[in-house]
Every structure is written in C-alpha cells, then in structure tokens.
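Following up on my earlier thread - several people asked me to post the actual chain instead of describing it. Fair enough. Here it is, all 124 residues.
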Amino acid sequence: QVQLVESGGDSVQAGGSLRLSCTTSRYTLLHYCMGWFRQAPGKEREGVAIINMDGTTSYGNSVKGRFASSKDFTQSALYLQMNSLKPEDTAMYYCAADLARGTCPATAAGFGYWGQGTQVTVSS
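Reply from S.P.:
Thanks for posting it. Predicted structure:
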C-alpha cells in the first residue's frame, strides 16, 4: 500500500517561498514515479513536476525556473521548493505516485496513488 502525506502548505504573500513535503516510504521513492500536481477551484488538475526514474524532472511551463523538486531518502520524503510565488500559484497541491514501468506518466490520469493535498494560498 502506497501512502503519501503532504504538508507545508500555507498562506504567503506574492514573491515569497514555501517548501512542500510529501512523506512516503523509501521503497516508493526508489520504485515509483513521483509527481506534484495542483488544482485550483474550477480548474483541471495541472502537472507541476514529474520526477522521472532517470533522476530528471519535468516541470510545468508556469513553474519552470521557480519550483524545484527533490527526493530525500534519509527522510523518506519528496520535496517541492517553491520560490517567487505568484497569486496564480494558489491551489491545492497533491503528491502522486505510480509504479515505474518505463517512462513515467506525463499527466495526472497516469498516477494511481494520491495524497490528501495541502493548500497553498498566495496573496498579492
């Protein structure tokens, strides 16, 4: 059973930073494709970062250069460092995982395991 628990969401002003955490198991970090997604009210779930099994990360166009994801095997966690936050970054952020079978999924539909989400609110 894959468990994903997000934390770190908060309310910040534009230009600020936050670090989200997704606590899971080392086994999941090693053998599962991992991703960060977000969903704002009335909008579709959007890919933020997809961490591929070769160690590369694919970022959504709207967050490139501002967000960075990393794995910490000592803490059994996946992180999302978010800098230069904008009001349009306001959303519920989710951590997702799916068993690696070659290329990692490129969209939310390809991920089978989800955390409960953590809210990020950015005010102008």
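The CA atoms of residues 2 and 32 lie 10 Å apart. That should answer part of your original question.
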